Amino acid sequence: MSGTASTRPTPASERMRKTGMQTPPPPTERTEPTDADVEAFKQQLGRPPRGLRAIAHRCPCGQPDVVETAPRLPDGTPFPTLYYLTCPRAASAIGTLEADGVMKEMTERLATDPELAAAYRAAHEDYIRRRDEIEELTGFPSAGGMPDRVKCLHVLVAHSLAAGPGVNPLGDEAIAMLPEWWRKGPCVTAPPGTVPPGEGGHLETTQDGSGYFAARQTGEDGK
């Protein structure tokens, strides 16, 4: 009897089939941040960047959607989340996946699918290697729950976007479940202190146990 998980469609795979994007955003070159990128970051997250090293991935709309952050912030605080998702539209869509129980389902699959577990552990090792090339953070995990569970899809998606397809299997899966968040155009095109036309509301940040602050677009009534 094979040790791999059942091929019966999971709720996540059903979501992927029904609502996911057909073609994921392509990899982009890692670049030094420009003044315009820094301004976009401020508008996306509602604060200046901390420990910003590079633009790790650029959205098809042209704006940054993943930044590379130093393992230690300027004040010396350890920051294990190397790749940080900034796009509020993508973050909001990922938050919906988390609320729908996708993280729990993925963690359960890791316990029953040795091939998936091995690929996810390799993703963890890739994340650590990339971070350690900048500065070693002894005693700190990678991020997002790797290598044994799924704790933050935002982190896994950011890793997949920065590293490209085939590196983080669960990050790749999560991306495939998302809508094409860039189709409305850039998420931040309005002057500083305002929100993009048609979006409404404001930016709200929430913290999870991995140290990641996920921004999501909220409505005028805060929902």
Low-confidence stretches: 1-7, 190-223
> Helix proportion of residues, in percent?
25-40%
Number of helices: 7
CA-atom Rg in angstroms: 17 Å
Q: State the strand order across the main sheet.
A: 1-2-3
Average pLDDT level? 82
Counted up, domains total 1
Largest sheet: 3 strands, antiparallel
- DSSP strand content: 5-15%
- Distance between the first and last residues' Cα: 48 Å
Gross morphology = globular
What is the N-to-C order of secondary-structure elements (H for helix, E for strand)? HHEEEHHHHHEE
Number of strands: 5
Task: Decide which structural class fits the backbone.
Answer: alpha+beta
What does this entry look like structurally?
This protein is α+β, with helices and mostly antiparallel strands and 223 residues long. It has one domain. 37% of the residues lie in helices and 12% in strands. It is built from seven helices and five strands. A three-stranded antiparallel β-sheet has the order 1-2-3, with helices on both faces. Strands 4-5 form a two-stranded antiparallel ribbon. Helix 1 crosses helix 7, helix 4 packs across helix 5 and helix 6 crosses helix 7. The longest helix has 19 residues. The radius of gyration is 17 Å and the shape is globular. The N terminus and C terminus are likely disordered.
